[in-house]
């Protein structure tokens, strides 16, 4: 044994070849934490001291290669002053450089996921052999930062500047065929042949068949482009990156600029450029938000898996009500491997549901993501029915009929008589109280809410709503089913609107008040889209359906009259009364027609503008873009805080992830509570107080005032 540590070992194989094997003890994956970095340095020194060493094979003992750096350590590292953070980065890069400079050839066998620092380790090797089961890439921009272990230096010298900018700026995982085509790996083989193929390549380096020194030298020298070629490559590349990334995400364009600046430099000087940009990006609010989002996502998934442990198996599901929503639920369940019954009272409804599932599967086939045989198998696992035959085999039954309390009561009561006593019944309601819906049920402990977001196949969030009588076993089983469907469930407690809709409607209240005060809704849309929302509030109302929105607003006003009873005739009510329901009937705040692909295309509508002017009753408020954002965001943020105070959501992580996944809250802002943290709790309270005369939705909760007084934050 050449080296034995807790994260990696080095030992001789045959003929002077040593195997450097990553195997982080006590963890299911390999990652670059402080321990692994230190041991890589020690192992490299031990290898360099071996007089008989002829080559190094780098492997992993786990199912992945190395997933990247340990993000949990980043939050503390990034609090260091620039000088100390730079010192750490130089020390880390020195380790990779010393490995790269070993006096013998190095070949890595990439058996699984090799991302971020994991792929940067691969780039430090002379040759890369990849399994067909592996993926590689540099996803650091998705955390708002640059690669930090030499990725912006080595990658352009290995695959060219154009490809390197694309790989790094998108942060996408590269599958074997794409990685081989671009030159990111040198060979791709079946998993069972990986080690043998990598050893064969290494031996060919040892015997001189391959000139590993020449290949290594390319990574140590400036990029092989003259000044004009370099200028053309980076001018075009940066323009494409800037267009795709937008103004709110500085990491992609910074990574491209880092490559441009380090391209004419030798390795060590080039790495200094990378470190400088790495430090700069760690100071951005986007990095803070995106790293926080990553950690929140891990926390939410961990909580969901903990909930699911107590849930029994879900081998058969059923959905009540076909149509677009029922068909979407059926598709998602069957696509992810859980067969499902789809019941409706009319043949036309079943046809619509099957058509929706078929349409979604056809898209997968047309894009080459599945074959026709697999599509047929999935469609076969959706069984449409007009009766309850087979419902006695269902473990979870999801009700997805019209959002009408009386209809839901009738359907749920009837269904309860046709299912097993241990089966779980769940309602896909978006606003109706779970406690109210449970009233006529004989087994309310087996009932909860399971709120999907539309379109089901695209939206990752599912709200699992616990009623007053809902058992822990019921929650566990529905969480487990949501996970089986490939969704991220968050468990919330019952209240009007539950969590996502409850906090969305105060946001709409801010919009209604702005229009009432004479602010052009087109401007509000543009400001909020610039803020990062996927669409402005007027456009969102059109997409959701103004009739649906008005019904939900009534529910919210009844549930929270002190904050959500507007007290004036809103522009949405005027639209509803005029039967302008948005995209569903082609007219709302905007007019809609189909484009060449059959998708709705919005255009401005003069009648809607006249209605907005009528709603304003002659008011014409002079207001800055910053105050528009404030008047839109304060109501949402304060309601999120109230939901946390009332235990509607159990954690700040659940709260922010619910907004990211449920309404498309800007990922680079991290969620409403992260937004408050970054502004400063005291500053946010002061901002809310500035608008408090507008009504209860602008009133800062006492808990927030207490946090401000004590200097507290939602996230550390």
From TrEMBL:
Protein name per its UniProtKB record: enoyl-CoA hydratase
Entry keywords, A to Z: Fatty acid metabolism, Isomerase, Lipid degradation, Lipid metabolism, Lyase, Multifunctional enzyme, NAD, Oxidoreductase
GO cellular component: fatty acid beta-oxidation multienzyme complex
Gene name of this polypeptide: fadB
Entries under PROSITE patterns matching the protein: 3HCDH (PS00067)
Catalysed reactions, as listed in the record: a (3S)-3-hydroxyacyl-CoA + NAD(+) = a 3-oxoacyl-CoA + NADH + H(+)
CDD domains: crotonase-like
Pathway(s) this gene product operates in, as recorded in its UniProt entry: Lipid metabolism; fatty acid beta-oxidation
Transmembrane segments: none
Molecular-function GO terms, alphabetical: 3-hydroxybutyryl-CoA epimerase activity; delta(3)-delta(2)-enoyl-CoA isomerase activity; enoyl-CoA hydratase activity; long-chain (3S)-3-hydroxyacyl-CoA dehydrogenase (NAD+) activity; NAD+ binding
Leading EC class: lyase
Domain 3-hydroxyacyl-CoA dehydrogenase NAD binding: 317-495
Family designation: In the central section; belongs to the 3-hydroxyacyl-CoA dehydrogenase family. In the N-terminal section; belongs to the enoyl-CoA hydratase/isomerase family.
Coiled coil: none
Any GO BP annotation: fatty acid beta-oxidation
Enzyme Commission designation: 4.2.1.17
Domain 3-hydroxyacyl-CoA dehydrogenase C-terminal: 497-592
